[in-house]
Structure formats: C-alpha cells, structure tokens
Amino acid sequence: MRSMDSSGDKVSTRSSPGRGQARIKPPTSSGKPAHQSG
Question: Up-side HSE of residue 32: CA atoms within 13 Å toward CB?
Fold first, then answer.
C-alpha cells in the first residue's frame, strides 16, 4: 500500500488511516491528522 503513496507522502500515509487523502495533503499534516484522524 505504501508503494502507491511512495511518491513522497509515504510518511503521511503511515500516520493517516486514509491513504487516498494522505497523498493529497502535505506530509506536514502527518504529525497532526486533526479532523482526518479515524
């Protein structure tokens, strides 16, 4: 699954449950998913 987001948002993917939205938002949000947190 991470190979899909390996474009550079792999760090965001491991933190965010939503892989589709994770790659859309910057890796900066990976630290604090906020409302996107499942």
Answer: 1
